[in-house]
Amino acid sequence: MTGWPEVKENIIFMGNPGEGKTHLANALGLEALKRGYKVLRNLSHWTSLLLMK
After folding, report:
1. Alpha-carbon 28 to chain mean position
2. H or E element: which one contains 34?
3. Domain that holds residue 11
4. pLDDT tens per residue across span 2-50
5. Phi-psi region for residue 26, left (φ > 0), alpha (ψ -120 to 50) or beta?
6. Furthest-apart CA atoms within the chain: distance in Å
């Protein structure tokens, strides 16, 4: 995750059910929290994370 929040780029996880997309999104959100970002997790069909510092 080096540099990802700082450059403000989107990350899109694509794949079949059960391949770990939600797990990866959760891991990125937790790492962002550790780095001092605020994280908003949207639990809709289209999963998204909003990071703010």
Report:
1. 5
2. helix 21-34
3. 4-52
4. 567 777 777 778 888 899 888 888 888 888 888 888 877 766 555 556 6
5. alpha
6. 32
Contact 39, 50 (CB under 8 A): yes
DSSP state, residue 27: H
> C-alpha distances in angstroms, 14 versus 1, 26, 39?
18, 15, 21
CB 49 within 8 A of CB 29: yes
Phi, psi of 27 (to 5 degrees): -65, -40
Give 37-45's long-range contacts (Cβ < 8 A, gap of 24+): 37/5
Tokens standing for residue 18: 């059960």
Model pLDDT, residue 12: 76
